[in-house]
Amino acid sequence: MGTIIEAAATATESSLGAVQLAGTAARFCLKRAGRTPDELDLLINVGVYLDNNISEPAIAALIQEDIGANTEQHPGGGQGTFSFDVRNGACGLLTGIYLADGMLAAGTIKTGIVVAADSDPDPGISEGFVFPAVGGAILVSADDQRTGFTAFRFATFPEFAGLFQSDLNWRQAAPDGTRQPGRNILTVNVADTYATRAADCAESTTRELAAASALDLDEVGLLVATAPVPGFAGELARRLGISAGRVASLPRSLAGAHTAAPAVALEPANLAAAGTTIFVSAGAGITVAAALYRG
Fold first, then answer.
1. Residue 249 burial (CB < 10 Å; 0-12/13-18/19+)?
2. Among 168, 275, 283, which Cα is nearest to 216's?
3. Whether residue 76 has pLDDT greater than 80
4. What is the CA radius of gyration of the chain?
């Protein structure tokens, strides 16, 4: 039995906040798979940008309510939808899939969805927020006839932690009175050297995954590589010797997508035709997540 991807979908309405972007993407994803929200046993939210920088409750619960997934108590204690948040930045979607894979293998769940959204929590106030507004969702389930995900690898390179940082800090009113009194301000700082170091870390982690899986990179039919800097997928493919025709590309308008990027790259892809797919995400930390998928 393997964990397979049933569908992926995105939402790009810039006027929506994180909850609505993720919810819209989830509804599109479920519709694409021919499923209803009540069929979800698991919903994991991996987005890190919170509407108005709220901290409670778990955003996953708000998204669950937004899409109407088992919002009423089941008679007799039947299984509903278990929802929770996971924070792992650009590696969040792969981290969520990894967690869902464990639950599917154990038979705890039959169907799960992992969602993310990149939306400026305080438009006009946040500093350094350059990511396009996009929500993403990936629906996974167990299948006795298909292989699906076969291996995951995660690595963190703390020596590069300072190259990509996000901070939420309380600011008092500015002396000139132009800012609203007392509020949390999100500040994002990405160093010029981050893109190169992220590619370095992603290359080593991907090669480790391939070696541990006895995979010849020439077998890879599709590379889904994402990081919150444009050009990452092409650079990683060049280093790995994977031709441009085997790389899932993001639309130019979404090239800098952050937590939702894997769903954006995956949405138009044909995993069955690719045969063997490698997923790679790199984010702050520097943290890298990689996974091997057999279509």
1. middle
2. 275
3. no
4. 19
Residue 176 has pLDDT above 60, yes or no: no
What is residue 138's three-state secondary structure? strand
CB neighbours of 188 closer than 8 A, spacing ≥ 6?
126, 127, 128, 129, 130, 165, 166
Q: Which amino acid is at 181?
A: P
Name which of 44, 294, 205, 132 is nearest 225 in CA terms: 205
Helix (H, G, I), strand (E, B) or coil at 255: coil
Please, what are the domains in the chain? 2-144 (3.40.47.10), 152-157+191-294 (3.40.47.10)
pLDDT at 71 over 90: no
pLDDT at residue number 74: 62
Residue 288's identity, in one-letter code, is V
Tokens 């006009």 sit on residue: 124
Angle at 283 between CA 131 and CA 17, to 5 degrees: 35
Percent residues over pLDDT 90 in the chain: 73
Three-state SS at 275: coil
